[in-house]
Design a protein that fits this description.
The protein is α/β, with parallel strands linked by helices. It is 29% helix and 17% strand.
Length: 326
Amino acid sequence: MPLIDKFGRQITDLRVSVTDRCNFRCVYCRSANPETHMPSGDLLAWEEYERLVRILVAMGIRKVRVTGGEPMVRPGVEDFISRLKALGVQDLSMTTNGQMLAEHCDRLVAAGMDRINISLDSLDRERFERITRTKMFDQVIAGIDAAQASRLRPVKVNAVLVRGINDDEVEAFAAFARDRNLIMRFIEFMPLDADRSWTRDMVVTGAEVHARISAHWPLVPVVHERSETARKFRFADGRGEIGLISPVSQPFCGHCSRIRLTADGKLRTCLFSKEDHNLRFLLRGGASDREIGDEILAIVAQKEKGHRINEPGFAPPSRTMVSIGG
C-alpha cells in the first residue's frame, strides 16, 4: 500500500541516519561531545535498518539518503549500502563531510551508491578550521575530487550560509562549481542549531544568492521535480550548476515527499516535527512486518502540512539537526 498523507502527498524519499557521531567538532554542533551521544544500545543495528527499508520500499520508497552525524565513521556502511541496493532502492545517496571520502569512494561506488552530497561551509582554509575545529580541509577537497572523478559525478557540495560567518563566500563557491564542473548548493540557515542562536537576520536567502551570482555569471533555470528541495540553475556560459534550497524564504512543503529515520529508530514526518515515533520499540518487541507497515501508514497519514517557520508562535523541534539526521 503506498504511503500517502492526508494532504494527498505520496512519500517516496527516506532519509536514514546511521549515527549521531562525527569526526568533526563544528562550532554549531555538539556531535563530537560524548555526553550528547545516544546510548549505543539505542542505535539501530544494520539488520534493523535493512528490515525497515525493505518494508518501506514495498510501500513505495524509491530514494534513500544515508546520513549522520558522519555516516562513514560507523564501520560497515559500505556493506549497508550494498544491502540497500539489493532491496531495490532506485536512487541511493549519502550526505558526508567528505573527510574520509577519498579513501572510501571506490568501495561506495562498488556497493552501488548512485549520488553523493558533501558538506563544505567554507573554501577559506583558516575559516574552515575555525568552523570544524579540525585540520581536514585538504582531505575534504581530496574527497570532492575523488567523487567527481568517479561515476558519482556531478558531485553536490552543500554550504549552509550564515550571515556574518560565510556569506561573503557566495561568489567563491560559485567559481568553485564552475572550476570543478560540480553542483554547488546553497542552503538557508534553519533553526536547528545546537546553541539555539538562530535568528531571521542570519538567513541569507536564495533570492540574494541568485542575484549575487547572476550579477557575475548569467544563470539558466534547470527543470526539476516538484518534490525536489532545490531550485536548480546552470551557468549559461560554461560548466557547473547551482542549487538554491530556501526552506525559510520559499518553503517547499506543499510538495514534500520525505520522511526521516533517526539513528535510534524514530520515524519523523518533518524535519521540524514536534514528536517522533518509536519504530525501534516495534522492531525489538516482536512486531510483524505487517504490523510495522500498518504503524508507518498511520504515522505518515498524519504528516504535517508544513514546518511553520514563518508562522507566529513557531518553536524549533526538541532535537537538533545532528540527532535528527542531515
